[in-house]
Each structure stands twice: as C-alpha cells, then as structure tokens.
C-alpha cells in the first residue's frame, strides 16, 4: 500500500476509534468506495479540475446522507477532495480496513486443508 493511503487511513482511524465509530465508518467508507467504483460519472465529476471544491463537496454530502454516513466520513471525504486525492478512494478504503483490523488486533488468515 502506498504511504499516502496509509497516512489518510491512519488519520481516519484515529478519529473513528477515538469516537468509537470504527465499524460504522468502515462500512460507510466501503459503501462510498463501491458507489465511486461503479459510477464513471461520479469519478469524472470528483476528478474534474473544472469543478470547484465547493461543488464537489455537495456530491459526497448527498451520497453520505443517503448512506446514513456519519460526519466523520463526510469530513474525511471533504479532506480527500480538497487534497485532490479522489482517485485514491478505493485504495483508501482498503488501507483503512487494514489499519482498523491491525489496531483491533485482528489478522487476516487463510486456512488451507492438507490432503493426505
């Protein structure tokens, strides 16, 4: 994972864990990342230099409201937009999940059965 993704993920994790909202924020970010990945129109709009940051803020605000997303996620998305990192949204969601799981002491494992 890129260091920029990890920096954003760690910052979001700090806030989400402090407020006891890690799991809801994780789900909301994954939902938003899914919508982002599925919609070329949304990706193009958020990446367009012709659209102001203020105009771009309106879109995640509406989507966050539809998803029932928290202010934590909404403000995080505003930060991502303001720093022109919208292309990283799917990667940020992946990094955030990894950081949260690590901080919760969870590790991902793959179970294989040996055939004899």
Structure notes:
The chain has 116 residues and is an all-alpha fold. The protein has helices spanning 3-18, 22-38, 40-47, 53-67, 71-82, 89-103. Helix content is 72%, strand content 0%. The longest helix is centred in the N-terminal third of the chain and has 17 residues, at 22-38. Helix 1 (3-18) packs antiparallel against helix 5, helix 1 (3-18) packs across helix 6 (89-103) and helix 2 (22-38) packs antiparallel against helix 6. The model has no long low-confidence stretch (mean pLDDT 90). It contains six helices and no strands.
Mean pLDDT: 90
Number of strands: 0
Distance between the termini: 37 Å
* Helix-strand sequence: HHHHHH
Total helices: the number is 6
Unreliable segments of 5+ consecutive residues? none
Radius of gyration: 16 Å
Gross morphology is globular
Strand % is under 5%
Major beta sheet summary: none
Helix fraction, binned, reads over 70%
The structure class reads: mainly alpha
List keywords for this structure.
6 helices; 116 residues; globular; mainly alpha
What is the secondary structure topology, with strand pairs?
Layout: H1 3-18, H2 22-38, H3 40-47, H4 53-67, H5 71-82, H6 89-103
Give a brief outline of the structure.
With 116 residues, the protein is an all-alpha fold. It has helices at residues 3-18, 22-38, 40-47, 53-67, 71-82, 89-103. The chain contains six helices and no strands.
């Amino acid at each position: 994972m890129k260091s920029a993704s990890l920096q954003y993920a760690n910052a979001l994790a700090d806030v989400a864990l402090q407020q006891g909202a890690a799991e809801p924020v994780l789900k909301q970010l994954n939902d938003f990342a899914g919508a982002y990945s599925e919609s070329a129109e949304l990706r193009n709009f958020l990446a367009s230099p012709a659209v102001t940051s203020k105009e771009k803020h309106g879109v995640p605000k509406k989507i966050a409201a539809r998803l029932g997303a928290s202010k934590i996620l909404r403000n995080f998305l505003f930060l991502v937009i303001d720093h022109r990192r919208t292309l990283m949204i799917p990667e940020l969601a992946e990094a955030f999940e990894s950081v949260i799981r690590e901080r919760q002491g969870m590790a991902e494992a793959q179970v294989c059965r040996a055939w004899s």
